[in-house]
Amino acid sequence: MNKKWIVFILPYLAVWAGLFLFKNAWLTLLGFHVSVLIALAILRPRVPLNILFKSNHPKWIIISVLFCSTSGIGLYFLWHSFGIAHDLPAQLISLGLNSSSWAAFIAYFSLVNPFVEEYFWRGVLGNTTKKIFVIDAVYASYHAIILWGRVPLSSVLFAVMILTSAGWLWRQFSREDGGLLAAVLGHMAADFSILMTIYWMCT
Asked: Is 170 exposed, middle or buried (0-12, 13-18, 19+ CB in 10 A)?
């Protein structure tokens, strides 16, 4: 099997196993990160890690952070339109996200996950094309596993489309800026604002 197909599949398997086999949010997130590390070990990329902290034009950082910060605001106002399951709070508790674990989960997810994802999806597997690239959709589609059973199928498909666009946007920021820092910080802003909205609505 082609190496790239293996590394595409690993994150999907990790997220599926964490959510539906182990039924634990922490194991899902940590398993996803381990799967990325395994994929990187298979690929042996030559992309330097310091690209995560590289920015040649600070304006892209400002644009990325300001724009991506609106993710949680949009989710808040469209919460009921998305048809989010009424038992989502109970589902999250069953995954181990309760009053004592939310703060640590939000901190880890917001501060660590963007570095892992941007290096993997945009740094190693990315492309400088201005068009939608297949990796944009591959990145977005594993989120469907996370959303499955929590929103209607139509909302899952809509979310995948939005995330495909986000993947494309972060690639463009990286292409224009010559580094991944703008994408990383924008990703942080998006993750933090979305998780804070979920926390606010479900606790």
From this structure: buried
Nearest to 185 by CA among 197, 203, 173, 198: 173
Question: Interior CA angle at 115 toward 192 and 158, to 5°?
Answer: 55
Domain-located, residue 39? no
Q: Is position 157 within any domain?
A: yes
Structure tokens at 70: 């609106």
Looking at beta carbons, which pairs linking 140-146 to residues 24 or more positions away fall under 8 Å?
A: 140/164, 140/166, 140/167, 142/11, 142/12, 142/15, 145/12, 145/15, 145/16, 145/19, 146/15, 146/19, 146/28
Entry pTM? 0.96
Query: In this structure, how many other beta carbons lie within 10 angstroms of the beta carbon of residue 77?
Result: 10
Write out pLDDT tens, residues 53-86.
999 999 999 999 999 999 999 999 999 999 999 9
Confidence of residue 18 (pLDDT cuts 50, 70, 90): very high
Asked if residue 26 is part of any domain, the answer here is no
By three-state DSSP, how is residue 148 classified?
A: strand
